[in-house]
Specification:
The protein is α+β, with helices and mostly antiparallel strands. The chain has 22 helices and 33 strands. Strands 10, 11, 12, 13, 14 and 20 form a six-stranded mixed sheet that branches. Strands 15-16-17-18-19 form a five-stranded antiparallel sheet, with no helix packed on it. The chain has a four-stranded antiparallel sheet with strand order 1-31-30-29, with no helix packed on it. The termini are far apart. Component of the biogenesis of lysosome-related organelles complex-2 (or BLOC2) composed of HPS3, HPS5 and HPS6. Interacts with HPS5 and HPS3. Interacts with biogenesis of lysosome-related organelles complex-1 (BLOC1). Interacts with AP-3 complex.
């Protein structure tokens, strides 16, 4: 059913002090600048210089006095004004073109009073052209007038500006603390300054040198970096810019180090700029609305049905609930920010309309809580909220009905029966006590004191979480805040049934913030190294069951999502790959039937290998460690085979020796595999002691020799006493003696010889007797022996014939 856009009247301005003057300025001056305080209680109206009195009006909603100020003709009026959200009181900052700054406060006494006055440009050598007041700071762009710069040509004058910053904070009950000046950018063009709750945008102006009119900068104080972006070129570069560390940039040097930004392009033809929570939006003269995000990327949001005719026409942009609101003259258009589709177009009763941001999180009063997140529209008629109206046929269920509906879905997922579990059955069946107890609490059957005692810890955690979210929205310590929020969310998800949306959310957190997600897993699983390269865990079995479990019915997770165990393996592979094998070994020691460890389905080491990629593309070291640590015979043999191919003999031998004595068959297979290599070549000779230790104790010498004979290389020629130069030396009895001793020690004691070859191992103590020598005279009885006599040694034999 189609939604309907609504304008809900929040106030007819009668509850603001100075309501008559407020309506007069809103209706009479189209160029008036309107700002709202972060708490929504103050409205600031500033008229351009030369306007009739009053030039400044601050109206207060509820109790409090308004502030009207006027400056006589010939006396300069403020360049800009800001309302600051100080805790004890509201503060007003006025900034003049000369650099004069005045800070006014209310709540200290009756009305408004001046708290401090100072100069941003002491000495009068500069002129302020733009100013902004991001959170806790005052930033301005000034044009340097002193020295010889005023006599330089146009290119040099174009770089005669600089951007400076000073901290601005309350001090005591009625004081302010304005810090020292720090220069962010030297020698830069004239920039306009716009601020959101997180970022400061430096945008080109009408006086910017044409060659730089397509460049804008985004400074994120919480991150300490600046992004230089050229939206028309699709380019952006990020650099460090943290005043706390003394960072500063010469703008010309900055551009020279960023290739491609100075390519000739047309200027940005901007009619209206508008900072939003999503980034910086601008409307061009063709009616196209574009968005530059804080990281520098840009995209087109949509196109209005009518374009602004000229700069004189009024326009305002704002966003709420994924919707872009644009007021152009007396027309309000609502566009979907995702698709750019026009959702609704309304004709307003006036063309003098201003869009105001909603109050900052945590600063709303009770009335504002009902309209949280909406965009507000201000005119002389009143203050309105722009929002969407739900269809009248939509009836919201009561809290009690929602409890039983959600409980029925939860129990149905865990139930094995085929019948559908209904909310009515839960109400009547006493078996399901949890939803009935919660419904009783919501109906008020439990006393407030007992309920508070039961929920005290949960309320404390919830309050801390809400404060953390408000801190993130405000932009304070953004990186640490996101890390803490991710840790909270991962810990919460690991306590739930990880299915559907919960699993998708867990995948998203691991992809966006892997370091924070893994930190949460460390605490939930209570993982600690034991000093020997292994991990230990004290987490209860229920937690491991959720981590190691697979999807229901063995189905693949939808949309490419990974189960929890695969997510952890993928995260470890990215962050600390050396801890992946110990983690998989620890996981294999946990679990029960159907957990993924020791149950049906793929073993855990194969699930971890699947995360590393296809076979042949995995990191070799990680694959070997996972195979060796799996404890599965086929996996260990596969790993030893890979080590043999890589000729990592020592590690292959240590892998076999690391197996427990309860795996004699696997040790025997590894020994036979390495013995075959020992028979083929001599590259294992240096590791012969380890090979002897791996030798099975029940292997007989005859079996050893038969195994060796099987793998000895074939002899194509009679053996020579010495190998040919460069040839592989043959296996000798000397090398074999150590192995034969290892096998023979198991059966050699006293008694008969157990093997035909065992006498090779034992030294008899005395040499065998020398065979009798054959004399030279006896050779005549055997004439055939003369052929064996060496040449020259048979000359002493006399011929008797």
């Amino acid at each position: 059913m189609k939604r309907a856009g609504t304008l809900r009247l929040l106030s007819d301005l009668s509850n603001f002090s100075g309501a008559a003057r407020l309506r007069e300025l809103l209706a009479g001056d189209p160029a008036v600048r309107v700002r709202c305080s972060p708490d929504g209680r103050h409205l600031l109206l500033l008229r351009p210089p030369g306007s009739p009195a009053p030039q400044l009006l601050v109206a207060v909603r509820g109790p409090g006095a308004e502030l009207e100020s006027a400056w006589p003709l010939g006396q300069p009026s403020p360049l800009d004004a800001f309302l600051l959200p100080w805790p004890a009181r509201s503060a007003l900052v006025l900034v003049w073109e000369s650099g004069l700054v005045e800070v006014w406060g209310s709540g200290v006494g009756p009305g408004w009073r001046l708290l401090q006055s100072t100069e941003l440009c002491p000495g009068g050598g500069a002129r302020v052209v733009a100013v902004a007041a991001p959170r806790g700071r005052l930033v301005w762009c000034e044009e340097r007038l002193a020295g010889a710069e005023s006599q330089l040509g146009p290119p040099a004058v174009a770089f005669s500006h600089r951007v400076c910053v000073r901290t601005l904070e309350p001090s005591g009950e009625a004081g302010t603390n304005l810090g020292s000046t720090h220069i962010l950018l030297h020698h830069c063009p004239a920039f306009g300054l716009l601020t959101s709750r997180k970022d400061l945008f430096l945008v080109p102006t009408a006086t910017t040198w044409p060659g730089l009119g397509h460049i804008l900068l985004i400074w994120s104080p919480s991150k300490g970096k600046v992004v230089v972006a050229a939206p028309c070129l699709g380019l952006s570069h990020s650099k460090s810019l943290n005043p706390g560390r003394g960072d500063t940039w010469d703008f010309r040097t900055l551009l020279r180090g960023l290739p491609g930004l100075l390519s000739p392009r047309e200027l940005l033809t901007v009619h209206t700029w508008a900072p939003t929570p999503q980034g910086l939006m601008w409307l061009d003269f063709r009616g196209t609305v574009s968005l530059v995000q804080p990281h520098g990327g840009s995209r087109t949001v949509g196109t209005l049905q009518e374009a602004p005719a000229s700069l004189a026409g009024s326009a305002a942009l704002g966003t709420f609930h994924g919707t872009l609101a644009c007021v152009l003259g007396s027309t309000l258009e609502l566009l979907d920010m995702g698709s750019g589709q026009l959702l609704e177009r309304k004709i307003l009763s006036t063309d003098r309309v201003h869009l105001l941001e909603p109050p900052a999180p945590g600063m709303e009063d009770q009335e504002e809580l009902e309209t949280r997140g909406g965009l507000r529209l201000l005119s002389a008629v009143g203050l309105f909220q722009v929002g969407w109206k739900a269809p009248q046929s939509l009836e919201l269920p009561s809290a009690e009905d929602m409890v039983f509906e959600e409980a029925s879905k939860y129990y149905q997922r865990r139930s094995l029966r085929g019948a559908q579990l209904t909310p009515e059955e839960l109400r009547q069946n006493s078996t399901f006590r949890a939803p009935q107890a919660l419904a009783s609490i919501l109906q008020g059957h439990v006393s407030p004191s007992a309920l508070l005692a039961t929920l005290r810890a949960e309320l404390r955690d919830y309050r801390g979480l809400e404060q953390l979210k408000a801190q993130l929205v405000a932009g304070d310590e953004e990186e640490a805040g996101w890390t803490e929020l991710a840790e909270h969310e991962v810990a919460r998800l690991l306590r739930t049934e990880l299915m559907g949306d919960q699993l998708a959310q867990l995948n998203t957190i691991f992809q966006a913030l892997p370091t924070a997600a893994w930190g949460a897993v460390l605490r939930v699983l209570q993982l600690q190294p034991d000093g020997n390269g292994h991990l230990r865990s004290q987490a209860p079995p229920d937690v491991w069951k959720k981590v190691l479990g697979v999807t229901a019915a063995g189905k693949e997770p939808p949309n490419g999502m990974l189960p929890p165990f695969e997510l952890l393996c993928q995260c470890l592979c990215r962050l600390e790959p050396q801890w992946l094998p110990p983690f998989v070994e620890l996981a294999q020691q946990q679990g029960g039937p159907g957990w993924g460890a020791g149950g049906p389905g793929l073993p855990l080491y194969r699930r971890a290998l699947a995360v590393l990629g296809e076979e042949g593309t995995r990191p070799e070291a990680l694959e070997l460690d996972l195979l060796l640590g799996s404890g599965r015979p086929k996996a260990v043999l596969q790993a030893v085979g890979q080590l043999v191919q890589k000729e990592q003999w020592e590690r292959a031998l240590e892998a076999g020796l690391a197996l427990s004595p309860s795996s004699p068959l696997l040790r025997s297979e590894i020994f036979k595999l390495l013995l075959a290599e020992f028979a083929r070549h001599r590259r294992l000779d240096a590791h012969l002691p380890l090979l002897c230790r791996l030798c099975p104790p029940d292997l007989a010498p005859a079996e050893l020799l038969l195994l060796l004979r099987t793998h000895l290389p074939d002899e194509l020629e009679p053996p020579a006493p010495f190998p040919e130069p460069g040839a592989e030396p043959p296996l000798t009895v000397g090398l074999l003696r150590a192995l034969l001793k290892q096998t023979g020690t198991q059966g050699r004691a006293s008694g008969p010889v157990l093997s035909l070859y065992e006498d090779i191992l034992w030294d008899p103590g005395t040499p065998p007797p020398t065979p009798p020598r054959v004399s030279a005279l006896q050779t005549s009885d055997h004439p055939g022996l003369e052929a064996w006599a060496p040449s020259g040694q048979g000359l002493y034999v006399t011929d008797t014939g």
